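Side project, low priority. Logging it here so it doesn't get lost.
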Amino acid sequence: MDREKPSVAEKAKKINLKGMWIHDYEQLLGDLGEKRYKARQLAAWIYARGATDFSEMTELSKDLREKLSQIATIDCIRQVKKQVSQVDLSEKFLFELSDGEKIETVLMWEADRVTVCLSTQVGCPLGCTFCATGQMGCKRNLTAGEIVDQIIALRDSRINHVVLMGMGEPLLNYDEVLKAIRIMNNEIGLSFAAKRITVSTAGIPDMIEKLAEENLKLKLAISLNAATDAKRAKLMPINKKHPLKELLAAVKAFGKKTKRGVTFEYVLIRDVNDSEKDALALSKLVQGIRCKINLIPYNHVPDLPYQRPAEEKVIAFRDYLYPRAPAITLRRSKGEDILAACGQLRV
């Protein structure tokens, strides 16, 4: 007689192997009386090959597969909804997690570059006043498994760049985000070069310095959005706890330790931070820092009072800044018509 599928209660008692990594698998296999070298085989099946059932893992012995099926599971996030932009073909996915919470993930296409924008929390605790996610509050952190599973779920899209810029503040979920990055970066994991992984933060100074010590050659982006403490604190409450002086000291320490520059992201909001005076203050703020400034015209969020500047104001801001700052790019967000652009994610 065939065994019935495990109930939710039975499944909850099992160990979820997705999100665990080599040393975790080595310990598990050791506890099962198995050779630890099989940990790399197990990792490759789960991440590189995307196996969801132990019966698929033909390199492992039938006895080991049976042992694993009794004590462990390979959970997967579930796609609930998909929207496709009619403007630029960006795709937004609504995923349901094992506890019923939901997150959004975005896929962006540009020539041969396919970028996935990952969420790291259900919501966000920082409450930036111009961001839809910030209005949700934060329900919980994602596990490393839930973070990497957003890539695994979309692997047929041939993703080659990863940005942790979706829902949540990555550096407030540091341990799980770092484990996810190590899985992404390993050849038996998801095999992404570190230079193709970007972590975006609103600015948690001690975590920025800690990240610098990890010896990962990833990219760091800082959500700046204003060049004075008074203005930035109104847009981003985190600035009250970590003012610009503290944040920039951490950024400089990151650059000194890693020998790499950072990207400052600056969302241009009409009559808030888009004046010539703002541009001058910004150019002075970044002096002496190896960086690029990424200007992002504000993306409309329903129920929020902000607006995008007129195109001529955006160009004027860029042109004023250009000779006074190291490097400037003007980024046109994708997926705005499906609320998938920067600052628009919200469940």
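Brief comment: The chain has a mean pLDDT of 94.
Revisit when time allows.
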